[in-house]
Amino acid sequence: MLVQDRVTTNPNPKSPKSKIRAAINNHHHDLHHRFSESKSLDFSTWVSENFYKVVTITVLIATVAAIVFLWSTGDTAALSYIQSKAQPLDKTHHSPRINWNNIPSITDKSSPYTNFRSEKWIVVSVSHYPSDSLKKLVRIKGWQLLAIGNSRTPNDWSLKGAIYLSLEQQATLGFRVSGYLPFDSYLRKSVGYLFAIQHGAKKIFDADDRGEVIDGDLGKHFDVELIGEGARQESILQYSHENENRSVVNPYVHFGQRTVWPRGLPLENVGEIGHEEFYTEVFGGKQFIQQGTSNGLPDVDSVFYHTRKTGLEAFDIRFDERAPKVALPQGVMMPVNSFNTIYHSSAFWGLMLPVSVSTMASDVLRGYWGQRLLWEIGGYVVVYPPTVHRYDTVGGYPFSEEKDLHVHVGRLIKFLVAWRSSKHELFEKILELSFAMAEEGFWSEQDVKFTAAWLQDLLAVGYQQPRLMSFELDRPRPTIGHGDRKEFVPRKLPSVHLGVEETGTVNYEIGNLIRWRKNFGNVVLIMFCNGPVERTALEWRLLYGRIFKTVIILSSQKNEDLAVEAGHLNRLYKHLPKIFDRYSSAEGFLFLQDDTILNYWNLLQADKTKLWITDKVSKSWTTVSTDGNTDWYGKQAEMVRKVVGSMPVHFQVNYKEAMKSDRDLVIGSSEIFYIPQHLVTDYVDLVGLVGDLDIHQKVAIPMFFMSMDSPQNFDSVLSTMVYKLKPPPANSTLYSAQAPAVHPWNVSSEQDFIKLTRIMAEGDPLLMELV
Hints:
Layout: H1 16-34, H2 50-72, H3 76-84, E1 120-125, H4 132-137, E2 144-148, E3 163-165, H5 167-171, H6 189-198, E4 203-207, E5 211-213, H7 218-221, E6 235-239, H8 251-254, E7 279-283, E8 289-296, H9 302-308, E9 326-327, E10 340-344, H10 359-374, E11 381-390, H11 403-418, H12 426-439, H13 445-460, E12 496-497, E13 500-501, H14 504-520, E14 523-529, H15 533-544, E15 550-555, E16 564-566, H16 576-582, E17 588-593, E18 597-598, E19 621-625, H17 632-645, H18 649-658, E20 664-668, E21 672-676, H19 680-690, H20 697-708, E22 722-723, E23 741-743, H21 750-760
Helix pairs in contact: 10-11, 12-13, 18-20, 19-20
């Protein structure tokens, strides 16, 4: 049912700001009366005394005035900072306590739509006059379009058949969440979700005004009905849960686009472009969150947008409409967005858009947060083949607006998969998780309070909590038998590569990437950064994470936000056993300093069961005579002799055969070396023999290598690397794409990284997608 008429706009409207002020003044008392919380969030015990009444009202007026001032003066940077700055919670804070059985109801007494009801709603945020896409969206049969305005929406916004809620109308609805929402953001859709639920919603299509539903029929693409006559009673293909270490997938691979990735996918997972070896199945009916794919401009991040697009030509990426929909099992997640997703009533609580993070991160964080909680009620996410065509009419966002998202999302996924709760009601679990995420710094205390307000508003408009179901992740995973395995091989559709369609050449390049990944996909890269990690850590992971199992970054200072571990280069060899222990299933470990560039495409012939080091590289591996020396070399040689004397026979024999004299000392620069898994135990034993001795890294690593095996058995793959003690003059370069590695090379900023990847593209042309 469509609303055909709406109230005529006042011919002499007040300015949006004056109307907001009036709405706030007129309805503040009602809002305060309805906000029922625990003592930690409720000031009802304070307002009993007149003095505190005056103080509270004064503070409120000052706060509103400050916000209006920031808004009126155009200081959007300051306002966005207040809105988006997220800091970990102080340990003295506590999760709110709320009596869920004592929430007064909120009814629509102020809008023209008091008596209107509809089960199916489309909710969009509007900042401009109705687009052509929106005019088509409002005509979808059986769905009611709800447009949510903000401070940028024209005063005379109108669209026949749509319900439009302006800022001042939103303020009169009495929802607690209104006090947390920014004036100029799509995050105001939270008011729209509550309004739709209040007016009978059972399904909500979360959309934007740039997408056109393919064939104008949502029911053709999504599972709009999960029970009853219109429900499809069928099994759904599901990603396999066999790999317990996999916690995130790129669904675009399943739908034919292996080199495209969604916004919110951890950058270290971008290189995982292989299709599933096999799937399983799950019976339909609990796909409470349904994510559609978008032809044209899919939901991609700024890295993809700016590296794939050249000139003014719009993106027109197509996905396989014949590919089957696919479900995600518990323990596996994917990015979920806010412009092409259907939420069923059992997941309405998951519509909350957090307010203390950037707008580019809000729906992504919501999606991961919601997926984790969905498991508690036995629900799951399903991804569907193309449901909308979204037009590329707006420029991409700068990387800086998404950088926090890229920094935190990998850690967030790990946190969510590991999170457990003993609460007995869903809303208690939701509040507990929101508090835990604030403690971890994923969002701020503001979102804890916002969650409390959101959940109370849900109950106030008549929503009922879903019942908890048994949690499967803590059970032993059943073995996937041969009969349970379902095969599906995704098509390989044309994509974009540097602004042009992929050809056979690009497919060849992708084939190379797959081959490199297959060769090094179980090798851990351990990287020490001498430069500023806040400028380069993400870039190194993006560059090498496509190839290796994982990229561990160490630096002289720890950075938890960037997952950078602390280590001192001179003694870093003592830290490596901890990493070896974490990745006991890895095939081997490759160490690299950030002043050395790795041309991984030249390492395919190397034997991953042997040691690799630069023993045959001039100036990298040198022997010094310490006979009679009492300087640093002499002291190092004395400690080496002490360690060698305590070695077991196999170590000692190897070392003494390699060294001509016990008075000689080998100095290895150790910018790059590789240790296979079967020699890790030997390495750890040698570190134990060093103990507290202050042997330098450049001395310890050669000693360890010559003790573990004879140098004649080392793989010689690094012998042809380019190695200089000093960098060349500024107008020349020493880089060679034919060498296995190049030293030295300085990368201390994003600009340096861009220059590097352009040069390395000679060996790996797909790197041009990163710059």
